[in-house]
Amino acid sequence: MIYLKCSKVIDRISDIIDGQASLFVRMRFYGHLMICKNCRRYFNQFKTVHELAGKVSSDDLPPDFDHVMAFVMDEIEKQDEKKDV
Ligand SMILES: [Zn+2]
User: Fold this and answer.
1) Which terminus in the chain has less CB density within 10 A, N or C?
2) What's the pLDDT band for 60 if we cut at 50, 70, 90?
């Protein structure tokens, strides 16, 4: 299950950026980003600020990134199925 509320996502952004969030939290977080344009934009801005501050490097994907994306794609397919009903 991905985060449904934008406020939950906003709460987690600094944990995600800092690499403090668990795999489970990251899955829920990125799942929301895939379906929510507003949070995606907010997250990108937040990330850019941190990159400029030298805290993260943009090409440094987490080792479990593939797992997270697979989970996210599953969740999106489920959402699409629900829409069809
Ligand atoms: Zn959102």
Assistant:
1) C
2) low
